[in-house]
Automatic annotation (TrEMBL):
PANTHER family: IMPORT ATP-BINDING PROTEIN
SMART domains in the cross-refs: AAA
Domain of life of the organism encoding this protein: Bacteria
Protein name: ABC transporter ATP-binding protein
Keywords of this entry: ATP-binding, Nucleotide-binding, Transport
Domain ABC transporter residues, every copy: 6-227
Lineage of origin: Bacteria, Pseudomonadati, Verrucomicrobiota, Opitutia, Opitutales
A GO molecular-function annotation: ATP binding
Amino acid sequence: MSSEILKIENLKKSFKSPNGSVIEVLKGADLSLFKGESASLRGESGAGKTTFLNIAACLETPSSGGVYWDGLKVDGLSNSKQAKLRSGYMGFVFQSYCLIPELNALENVLFAARIADSFNKKTISRAKEILEKVGLSDRMGHMPHQMSGGERQRVAIARAILNRPKVIFADEPTGNLDENTGLEVMDMLLDLCEVEGAALLLITHNPDFARRTSRNLVLRSGKIFEE
Ligand SMILES: Nc1ncnc2c1ncn2[C@@H]1O[C@H](COP(=O)(O)OP(=O)(O)OP(=O)(O)O)[C@@H](O)[C@H]1O
């Protein structure tokens, strides 16, 4: 079995802008991501990083090209099959945390299991263990508004890893945090991915954070380059 978990081939994506003109964002982007490796993706604002990530995660459809998970072409699958693929293979961390305001830290983490229909007693202990690993053993009952930005992002990281995803997509996870907190969160994300054997695709504008991953990718002129 190949250790290539995600393959993106000759990906093209154009959008129609409100004035009717066509914006060609991705112009033949390729990527091979292998099990357990970490890769950062940089690029100027508007280069198409989020678009690329969304297509890789089947959240958006490409204009042309192929998206393969574990060797299976997935970009033409039904919405329900793509949703199943997402809950089984992928974890997400966003700049804005995306926690549910009405749920406490533990419940937010467990929400990932509810979505994947894998909620049971074992999941509760795993959620607690992960929250301990990210240093939040005394914050499990806190609501999002009772936590700092760094704490909220650690909850989001715990939620992303709960279902043992093959790949974590992190889109500017430190964008709302100060430099030191960002660094702590970054280290925690990298450590957790390593311990859990999850690959990481990290979108970041911060070159210092980008250097902490084993591969450094740049999206330029609609294509991906390895640095
Ligand atoms: N649904 C859409 N309709 C029209 N244009 C879009 C749409 N989504 C994205 N775009 C355009 O595609 C380009 C790439 O956007 P994207 O969000 O992928 O960039 P990015 O590299 O992630 O930028 P940033 O670093 O600022 O977040 C932008 O010029 C954006 O305006």
